[in-house]
Amino acid sequence: MRMYDLILKKRNGDELTKEEIDFIVNGYVRGEIPDYQVSAFLMAVYFKGMTKEEISNLTLSFVHSGDVADLSSIEGIKVDKHSTGGVGDKISLIIIPLVASLGIPVAKMSGRGLGHTGGTIDKLESIVGFRTELDSNEFIHNVNTYKMAIVGQTANLTPADKKIYALRDVTATVDSIPLIASSIMSKKIASGSDAIVLDVKVGSGAFMKNLEDAEELAKTMVDIGKSLNRKTIAVLTNMDQPLGHEVGNANEIKEVIDVLSNKGAEDETTIALTIASHMAVLGGAYDDFDSAFNALKAKIESGDAIDKFKEFIRIQGGNPEIVDHPELLPQAKNHIEIKAPSSGYITSIDAESIGISAMHLGAGRRTKEDQIDFAAGITLTKKIGDQVDAGDTICILHTNLEDIDEARHVAQSAFSISEEKPEPVKYIYKIIQ
Ligand code: URA
């Protein structure tokens, strides 16, 4: 087989076989096919797309390029969830104890963040002592005993995807639906789950800026899941403003505590309950969405959900007292209030700008080597639809840095205010299954 012929085949819009896809992926990982040929191939995929069969085969090729977790010694149906990424997205941290409180096993493998704020693993590490590097025995023991555990992604999970993603990043081929879908689904499948709930974010702060593209991505990922015998559902959710009120790391943990204690923001609580309910149905605990939703809501109202979060922190080595005393979480020295420049209604809050501002405050990484300041972040005191008077505080920047002009400017310009009241925000757009 020659790489040249495969580039030509894809460039002409023809379908590649499983053997041909494996040849490209394995040859690239082994260093036998150069960057320039794989770049040309990726660009051909960008313009010509891939068939369902090709996308499944590409996903499988990524999966088998590295370690595949064996969760067969965990009893029950293991349901995972994945978000395509948003600003202030702490839903994974809410659903772990919430779904586990129903007795459904949640065996979660998560990543660190590169960009606006930390990933789920970074956020948890803002709790002093919290360990995210469990060996597989402890991980499986915790899921069997407590129904929940989280671990950082192993370095050898889907190495082919890692190498190809890095090439996509510098060849303008990231935003190709077949490539995004196979990249995401390969990591979920290699993590060993039986069923997957996908939270596909749509809006200014998301990869997918409009509903049509988000729906196509969701359908593509659901098709991959089905073709590889994983029950898969996608929930399309709004990311036109950051989720909840907190964007950062330690302050997001504080907000997780609020949601699990029945004091959460409406958008976050609704989305978390919706995703958790689909997980409960896929996990076989309930026959229908409504019964699962009511049962999970009751877990929050009764205090069981927050007790489970305390247990989650304790079994992974953190101090559960932070739940009753969030002031024990890292706190920033400086708190800068941003004021509304005029009176009216908040009509939009550009999520990406809020994320970038949080990164300037120290909450995220610009490069892999950067250290996150867990105390840094932003509290949104107003959200879309809120009425403000000129001079009201619209958000608060938390930081240990002194020079924050850029962060202040970006945060201020993220808000739009108009005299006209905007339409109420829709949190959930659609379910694809
Ligand atoms: N997230 C991933 O893991 N891969 C992509 O290609 C895009 C988002």
TrEMBL record:
<keyword id="KW-0808">Transferase</keyword>
<comment type="function">
    <text>Catalyzes phosphorolysis of the pyrimidine nucleosides uridine, thymidine and 2'-deoxyuridine with the formation of the corresponding pyrimidine base and ribose-1-phosphate.</text>
</comment>
<comment type="similarity">
    <text>Belongs to the thymidine/pyrimidine-nucleoside phosphorylase family.</text>
</comment>
<dbReference type="InterPro" id="IPR035902">
    <property type="entry name" value="Nuc_phospho_transferase"/>
</dbReference>
<dbReference type="InterPro" id="IPR036566">
    <property type="entry name" value="PYNP-like_C_sf"/>
</dbReference>
<dbReference type="InterPro" id="IPR017872">
    <property type="entry name" value="Pyrmidine_PPase_CS"/>
</dbReference>
<dbReference type="GO" id="GO:0016154">
    <property type="term" value="F:pyrimidine-nucleoside phosphorylase activity"/>
</dbReference>
<dbReference type="InterPro" id="IPR018090">
    <property type="entry name" value="Pyrmidine_PPas_bac/euk"/>
</dbReference>
<feature type="domain" description="Pyrimidine nucleoside phosphorylase C-terminal">
    <location>
        <begin position="345"/>
        <end position="418"/>
    </location>
</feature>
<dbReference type="Pfam" id="PF00591">
    <property type="entry name" value="Glycos_transf_3"/>
</dbReference>
<keyword id="KW-0328">Glycosyltransferase</keyword>
<dbReference type="InterPro" id="IPR013102">
    <property type="entry name" value="PYNP_C"/>
</dbReference>
<dbReference type="InterPro" id="IPR000053">
    <property type="entry name" value="Thymidine/pyrmidine_PPase"/>
</dbReference>
<comment type="subunit">
    <text>Homodimer.</text>
</comment>
<dbReference type="Pfam" id="PF02885">
    <property type="entry name" value="Glycos_trans_3N"/>
</dbReference>
<protein>
    <recommendedName>
        <fullName>Pyrimidine-nucleoside phosphorylase</fullName>
        <ecNumber>2.4.2.2</ecNumber>
    </recommendedName>
</protein>
<dbReference type="InterPro" id="IPR036320">
    <property type="entry name" value="Glycosyl_Trfase_fam3_N_dom_sf"/>
</dbReference>
<dbReference type="InterPro" id="IPR017459">
    <property type="entry name" value="Glycosyl_Trfase_fam3_N_dom"/>
</dbReference>
<dbReference type="InterPro" id="IPR000312">
    <property type="entry name" value="Glycosyl_Trfase_fam3"/>
</dbReference>
<dbReference type="Pfam" id="PF07831">
    <property type="entry name" value="PYNP_C"/>
</dbReference>
